[in-house]
Design a protein that fits this description.
Shape: elongated
Distance between the termini: 153 Å
Structural class: alpha+beta
Strand order of the largest sheet: 4-6-7-5
Radius of gyration: 47 Å
Strand content: 15-25%
Order of helices and strands: HHHEEHEEHEEEEH
Number of helices: 6
Helix content: 40-55%
Largest sheet: 4 strands, mixed
Amino acid sequence: MRKLGNSDERIKKISEKERKSKEEKKKEAISFSSGNRGSLSVEASIVMPIFLFAVLAIILMCNAIAVKGIIYEAGVETSEYMSEYAYLADKEDMADAASFLVATAKFHEYIDDSELVKDYITGGTMGISLLGSSFPDEEGYIRLKVTYHLGINAPLFGKFSKLCTYEIKEKAYLGYDVKNCENETDDDDIYVYLADNSAVYHMSRSCTYLHYNISRVSLASAKADRRGKCEYCGKYTDDEVYITEYGDKYHSSLSCSRLARNVRRVKLSEAKKAYPPCSKCGN
């Protein structure tokens, strides 16, 4: 009986120890879980503002880039308009101030998103300056100079401002002054025509000496006309040969290189160095 009683007591003690061990582990688990939740809350409170600030910064930068693109596009369209307007201004002898006012008005008209520009440009659309532009300059070019301050209002850090400037160059359409151009033309800068294997240059592309009129005649007739044989194909002559209206040779083949002419255009100053003028069109 004593042995049974001792066994029951030992079993109870073991059970009590196991129960206490389980309770301690449960408390430790609860404590660890509570600690993790607190740590996550702290980390979230630190990371979330940084994430939101990064997203906001990206949005601000994207909008700033978009504003620069809008202004540049307006500048390109304005310079194209002023390049055409320059012809009218030149003919009517308008003052430069009038051209400047027209350019300013067209520039504001070509701005696509004026509300976005107002948010990022100091002074809004009126803060964009075209001072220093030429309509046109002495070389006949429209030079549109655009200057403005790009501002980004960042929370907690305040407003950042950057001076932006660029210049667009466009050829002005001033027309063609025939009288002045005729007086200023250099005779040596005109173009003349040279044919392959030619000994002269031609002033006219339609000169008949540039275009062979080939005829087929008898060999006897060609010799009677005091024509010599072609040094390229004349040695293979038959009873009939080919001659040209203004040539002094007869040819046995239509494919002779002396009958094929490629005409090219060159400056008169270059042609004069190696060739005399054509007796028909060069005078």
